[in-house]
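A quick aside before the break. I want you to see a complete sequence-to-structure record at least once, exactly as it would be stored in a machine-readable document. Don't worry about memorizing anything.
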Amino acid sequence: MNKDPRELILNMPMSRMQIMVVAITIALNALDGFDVLSISLTAASIRDELGFGQALTGLLLSMELVGMAIGSILLGRYADKWGRRPMMLSCLVMMTAGMFMVTVNPGVLAAGAKSLTNALGLLEEWPVELVHISIWRVITGLGIGGLLASINAVVAEYSNSKKKHLNVALMSIGYPVGAFTGGFIAAALLDSYSWHSVFLLGFGMTAVMIPIVFFFVPETVAWETRKQKPGALERINSTLRKMGKPTIDGLPNVSAEVADTSQDSIFAPRLIRTTVIVTAAYFFHIMTFYFILKWTGVIVEDRGYAASQAGQVLSWINVGGATGGAILGLLTLKFDLKRLTIAAMVMSTVFVAIYGNVTELAQMTVICVACGFFINAAINGMYAIFAHAYPTQVRAAGTGFAIGLGRGGSILAPIVAGFMFEGGAGVPIVAFVMGGGSLLAAVALLFLRLDPEPPEAMEAEAAMEGAPPLPLRESTA
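That is the input. The structure line, written in tokens, reads:
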């Protein structure tokens, strides 16, 4: 059959194999949710064991976020260059090592880093154990960042046109699903075991996903078609057969210029506006999200409740998040993606402001569910926007850059909140300030333009007509 394989995937119903790949990406994103929750649940215990204050607690909470930012920007680029599948596997290895190494005693790496920072007059207040934990949290974050950029591209490229936004939203709800299911388990572990048990659970869950990805997630047809490496036709047809799609007789026309497009093209004149807007929106909104996620456990414990109760509140945040993400995904089948995302961001601001003014546990839990609902719905909308706004050759790079630089907001959120608390600000004031991030994100998205058709559809149409696709055009509608 002489047809562009990307067009086959876009226009035909999704097969069981495609649905299975989407399900695997949901599980992979759940690892991110559990990892972030793991440090949120254990930060107070680590703080009390090692004896440091709120400011250092905020820095500890941000360590894996530093790694995520770097990993999303750098490793996302290589997912476009080397392939989604090898990057996913490499990132899972990093995450597995990072989760396990947090639980062992400090080694030469931590001792050497501590000696170096002492010699430079830096981090003198940090115990060597905290340096050790921080190093491995950064490494874990590197893996998570690269994984997020890769799986967003995988979902977009395994989906048909009708279900693309829904599938990206479903992938995104893996985060709150992993956080709330892992949270309930971790809360139970903390009742009987030390904080180390939470990271050992994360290590086991991450290790299990390595063989699952290796055996059940082939490289995407869109990436193979774009790159056209030796043996690409055979690999594409093998994947098409697994999907139950017709095979093709030859590869479509893709110019060398487009196939080898630099990942720096996300800053080219035709895409720079999109890159700036989506990165700014993600940056501001994620500040609100990570304030809630990182500080809620500490706030609940500081109000006299047990660590297990703090874990339950955090888990209910993610119950709301999973629900909000699923509902937004379903709504994208009938309503405009950008408008839904903006509405969710505005509601996030409202409920975070309310969150700062409740102190009773049951009330906090209910408001946290609402916060999680709207915050995660907006995050899922952002992931769908990333997948729709960028063409195949820079999809992971564009997503990775937006997530990576946007994660600067996630790094800043716990730190800014920590210093505000240290300076005497109460929870109502801090929540009001941090909730404003979602409102700024909504304003930024007002200036974004999205094409009604996904990039693959236009690329396939151009290739079938014998012309190279228009690789780096600004969205116009």
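Two observations worth writing down. Residues 16-50 form the longest helix (35 residues). The chain has one domain: 5-464. We'll return to this after the break.
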